[in-house]
Design brief:
By secondary structure, this protein is α/β, with parallel strands linked by helices. 38% of the residues lie in helices and 16% in strands. The protein has a seven-stranded parallel sheet, sandwiched between helices. Strands 8-7-9-10 form a four-stranded mixed sheet. The longest helix is centred in the C-terminal third of the chain and has 21 residues, at 358-378. The radius of gyration is 22 Å and the shape is globular. It binds nicotinamide-adenine-dinucleotide (NAD). Residues 18-24, 81-84, 95, 118-120, 125, 128, 130, 167-170, 199, 217-218, 243-244, 246-247, 277-279, 282, 358-359, 361-362 line the site of nicotinamide-adenine-dinucleotide. The site of nicotinamide-adenine-dinucleotide has 37 residues, from helix 1, strand 2, helix 12 and helix 15.
């Protein structure tokens, strides 16, 4: 297979994070800890994942980072924006995810990273009262200010390239409107201060306009509109969204494909969880929760395809609840009750109690999305990067196809995309040539 030309990862990569709260600061602190040898990048495929190359008869499973040129962590610099002016050390202490002893060891470099002034509007995140905010007449002026920030950051930090990953709050639920349909309409909407353009979309526009790869870790519309997909193709920016696939939905997309693979039926799936971080406080508002709920609900329908398997999945009941419960902080607990049915329709139940840590699960995803998007950019790929659906709860898909939710299909797609970039044979798992009878 012809090798796809991937440019080398030379110089420094700037990773810019709009929203420097629990997830962003845990990501940054983690990378510093790894670079200092204090920690291991557990959960990150770009750092720890291996990939099979060639036939199973020859055991060849190099690290992904040795198959394609991934940016080295030592050459990554971080920056970002927030509505609060706390530096990353202060914000990490406030988030309460990482132990104080660990944070103290990283205090000097973390304190040096100060967020730039945010593009923010309380109408879209009702439970936040930020003060560190840009002021301008129009949304287009705000987008231009963000572009200036990016240029300045790149120059001051001597970066070769940038990538932006949205780690900001979940905004109120918005649906696609006329203003999102074409680039022309969106640009006019930015000038006219159209209310359908939320702050996260202004960041997405600014990054993509500059050809900077953009990933959306929240369920906000952000880059998931035709106008920004059009712009991404035009400027050569790879994009991926939306909503990091971390706790309960990760479990769902691991388990549901297994049930379906064995033709086991589903009567209902009830998911509820408690969390007490700032994200939980924001999601306590019904308008913001709605955005998250829509993102979480699509998963089972797509995996189980009730229209094709009515005897197994027609009318299954699916409910998702999130409850703000301050004592737990970032240590979320997610319960799932799954009512399944087996042979002759006999009912059975599965219970999951996942005592997880939200930001610990999300941090390696931020890193992988940033590094893989940078790789995609150097490989000349632009627009929606469907192979990164693996990391996302509500993945963007090309026009005319449904998003792919099954984590195992997503993994095959991710791995084959990497093999494709490296000019290696794609793996179909057919394996007929290993069959003894054929030898
Ligand atoms: N942790 C997870 O497992 C997980 C999973 C999926 C999605 N997410 C999403 O990731 C995002 C971050 O989660 P978190 O736990 O770090 O939340 P957080 O509340 O700790 O951090 C979000 C930060 O974004 C800032 N912010 C809000 N609007 C902004 C704007 N317009 N510009 C700049 N900054 C802005 C807030 O001030 C806050 O500091 C949330 O949207 C959350 O829903 C998290």
């Amino acid at each position: 297979m012809a090798k796809q030309k991937v440019q080398a990862a030379k110089g420094k990569l700037g990773i810019l994070l709009p929203g420097m709260g629990a997830v962003a600061t845990t990501t940054i602190a983690g990378v510093y800890a790894i670079n200092k040898g204090l920690s291991k990048p557990i959960g990150s495929l770009t750092q720890m994942g291996r990939l099979r190359i060639g036939k199973r008869t020859k055991v060849n499973k190099p690290f992904i980072k040795d198959v394609v040129p991934i940016q080295k962590l030592k050459d990554v610099v971080f920056g970002g924006w927030d509505v609060f002016d706390d530096n990353v050390y202060e914000a990490a202490v406030h988030a309460g995810v990482l132990e104080k002893d660990m944070l103290k060891k990283l205090k000097t470099p973390l304190s040096k990273i100060k967020p730039m002034k945010a593009v923010f509007d309380k109408n879209y995140v009702k439970r936040l009262d930020g003060t560190h905010i840009k002021k301008a007449k129009t949304k287009m002026d705000l987008a231009k200010a963000l572009m200036k920030d990016m240029e300045k950051f790149k120059k001051e930090n001597k970066c070769d390239r940038l990538v932006v990953v949205w780690c900001g709050s979940t905004e109120i639920y918005l649906e696609e409107t006329k203003v999102h349909k074409t680039l022309k309409a969106l640009e006019k909407g930015l000038v006219d201060n159209d209310p359908s353009i939320a702050p996260s979309m202004i960041y997405a526009y600014a990054a993509i306009k500059m050809g900077v790869p953009y990933a959306n870790g929240a369920p906000n519309l952000s880059c998931d509109v035709p106008a920004l997909i059009e712009l991404a193709k035009k400027t050569g920016a790879p994009i991926a969204g939306k909503d990091f696939k971390t706790g309960q939905t990760l479990m769902k997309t691991i388990l549901a494909p297994g049930l379906k693979a064995r033709a086991l039926g589903l009567e209902g799936w009830f998911s509820t969880n408690i969390l007490g971080n700032r994200d939980g406080a924001v999601l306590d508002d019904p308008d913001n929760f709605k955005t998250k709920e829509v993102s979480k609900l699509g998963v089972l329908e797509e995996i189980l395809e009730p229209e094709l398997y009515p005897d197994l999945y027609k009318d299954f009941y699916h409910k998702v609840r999130i409850n703000y419960y301050p004592p737990r902080g970032d240590a979320k607990e997610g319960w799932d009750n799954i009512d399944i049915k087996g042979w002759m329709g006999y009912p059975m139940q599965i219970k999951i109690d996942f005592l997880c840590r939200d930001s610990i699960l999300a941090a390696p995803l931020v890193l992988d999305l940033a590094l893989f998007l940078d790789l995609a950019k150097r490989a000349g790929m632009s627009g929606i990067q469907e192979w990164l659906s693996f990391y996302l709860k509500s993945p963007q898909a090309p026009k005319g196809v449904k998003p792919m939710h099954d984590i195992f299909q997503q993994q095959i797609k991710l791995e084959n995309t990497i093999r494709h970039m490296a000019g290696e044979d794609l793996i179909t798992h057919l394996g007929l040539d290993y069959d003894d009878d054929k030898k």
